[in-house]
């Protein structure tokens, strides 16, 4: 038996209707907020997703079984956090503290978390992921991508991926995060392990394969070997690209039709052009630049060239331990010169595109009923009132989750 829920009394509704969004370069690609709006959720029978079946002006709303009056609050699609590393143990607060007083960030710090993660049991790892997913939900996030990459042995990567798959909406195999210390002198052997036995074991659970293509992590030739292995198995790819310096990552992402190129902090004009001419989403992670005190990516160049842009947290214990999409959105506006509308769209529809999903990140008819009610009259307050807990309630699949 399905039942319907009318959500009404919405002061401002952001639908992000994918059909109504103009993606052409230079277009005013901001969301179109509706005033005095309503929508109807149909909750399916057991196991079926709750879906949006109608939206429009509140006075024209059809009847429904139940009614939720949000009393003039703004409603937005739930945030889609398309880049997070949640399967880990330990924390690196001391490293953060040292960084803030002058020690630079390097990819090698990942090995600290690898040691703690290997030493943790399954229940500890699972509990930590659940805690973070709940923390994200309380801040308005309804879709979470989660990567492996702190195990770096076949067994540790496989268990991390199975936990990610069970607890999150998308699971990404990142066996090629860094080269583990025990393989420092035989990198090729580790790359062969990742693209062979590890990928064989993980393929069943991997929605994506990711590689940290960066100086200090994996070079172009190594990245190609792993991307080829993913393609051979029919698994879509994404890349950590151009975070710490210029490099081949973005061009590889486009060449391999990656769902996203993540970070994009150091881009040449050619990189921007390549992204704009592709389906690959440029996923910007401004919490990382904030937490490592680094220059921000040039979001304006990407948007003005017509590239698809997403914002995500990169929640991880080393370079950025925030789980807050509202915080990242505020950074995108303040530090990367995105308009509040562009930032909201990147944090919802952009994240969905980065996960190749068309059922989340918007509230048009057919979308999964994932929405966030704000204690504010407009989504503009997300950037206008940084650091303020504006999330009133959060619904996923038609059910309240926070
Ligand atoms: Zn990352």
Overview of the molecule:
This protein has 402 residues and is of the alpha/beta class. The protein has 2 domains: 3-78 and 361-400, Urease, subunit C, domain 1, CATH 2.30.40; 80-354, Alpha-Beta Barrel (TIM Barrel). The protein has 13 helices and 16 strands. Strands 1, 2, 3, 4, 5, 14, 15 and 16 form an 8-stranded mixed beta sheet that branches. An 8-stranded parallel beta sheet has the order 6-7-8-9-10-11-12-13. Helix 4 (154-167) crosses helix 5, helix 8 packs across helix 10 and helix 11 (325-336) crosses helix 12. It is globular, with a radius of gyration of 21 Å. Bound molecules: zinc ion (ZN). Zinc ion is lined by residues 83, 85, 240, 314.
SSE-based structural type: alpha/beta
Helices, by number, come to 13
What CATH architecture of the largest domain would you give?
A: Alpha-Beta Barrel
The first-to-last residue Cα distance is 25 Å
Share of helix, binned: 25-40%
Distinct ligands, ions and cofactors found in the model: zinc ion
CATH fold assignment of the largest domain: TIM Barrel
Beta fraction = 15-25%
Radius of gyration, CA atoms, in whole angstroms? 21 Å
| CATH class descriptor name of the largest domain | Alpha Beta
The domain count comes to: 2
- Given the C-alpha coordinates, what overall shape results? globular
Count of DSSP strands: 16
The low-confidence parts are 23-31
The pLDDT mean sits at: 94
**Oligomer state of the chains in this structure:** single chain
Largest sheet: 8 strands, mixed
Question: Could you give me the name of the CATH homologous superfamily of the largest domain?
Answer: Metal-dependent hydrolases
Query: Topology as H/E string?
Result: EEEEEEHHHEHEHEHEHEHEHHEHHEHEE
């Amino acid at each position: 038996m399905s039942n319907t829920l009318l959500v009404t009394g919405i002061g401002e509704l952001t639908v992000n209707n994918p059909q109504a969004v103009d993606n052409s370069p230079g277009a005013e690609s901001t969301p179109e907020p509706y005033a005095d709006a309503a929508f109807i959720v149909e909750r399916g029978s057991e196991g079926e997703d709750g879906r949006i079946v109608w939206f429009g002006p509140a006075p024209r709303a059809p009847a429904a079984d139940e009614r939720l009056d949000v009393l003039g609050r703004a409603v937005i699609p739930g945030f889609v956090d398309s880049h997070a590393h949640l399967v880990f143990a330990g924390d690196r607060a001391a490293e953060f503290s040292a960084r803030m007083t002058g020690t630079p960030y390097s990819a090698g710090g990942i090995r600290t978390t690898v040691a703690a993660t290997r030493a943790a049991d399954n229940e500890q790892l699972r509990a930590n992921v659940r805690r973070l997913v709940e923390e994200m939900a309380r801040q308005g996030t309804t879709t979470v991508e989660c990567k492996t990459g702190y195990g770096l042995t076949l067994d540790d990567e496989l268990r991390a991926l199975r936990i990610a798959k069970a607890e999150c909406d998308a699971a990404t195999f990142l066996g090629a995060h860094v080269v583990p210390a025990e393989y420092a002198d035989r990198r090729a052997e580790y790359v062969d392990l990742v693209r062979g036995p590890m990928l064989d074991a993980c393929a069943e659970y991997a929605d994506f394969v990711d590689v940290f293509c960066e100086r200090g992590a994996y070079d172009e030739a190594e990245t190609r070997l792993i991307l080829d292995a993913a393609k051979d198995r029919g698994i879509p790819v994404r890349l950590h690209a151009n975070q710490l310096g210029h490099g081949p990552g973005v061009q590889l992402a486009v060449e391999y039709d990656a769902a996203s190129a993540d970070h994009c902090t150091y881009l040449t004009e050619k990189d921007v052009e390549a992204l704009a001419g592709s389906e690959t989403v440029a996923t910007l992670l401004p919490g990382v630049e904030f937490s490592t005190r680094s220059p921000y990516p040039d979001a304006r160049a990407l948007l003005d060239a017509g590239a698809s842009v997403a914002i995500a947290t990169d929640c991880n214990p080393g370079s950025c331990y925030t789980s807050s999409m509202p915080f990242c959105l505020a950074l995108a506006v303040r530090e990367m010169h995105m308009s509040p509308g562009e930032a909201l769209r990147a944090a919802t529809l952009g994240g969905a595109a980065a996960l190749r999903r068309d059922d989340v990140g918007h509230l048009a008819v057919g979308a999964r009923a994932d929405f966030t009610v704000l204690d504010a009259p407009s989504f503009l307050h997300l950037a206008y009132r940084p650091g303020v807990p504006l999330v009133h309630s959060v619904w996923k699949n038609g059910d309240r989750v926070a």
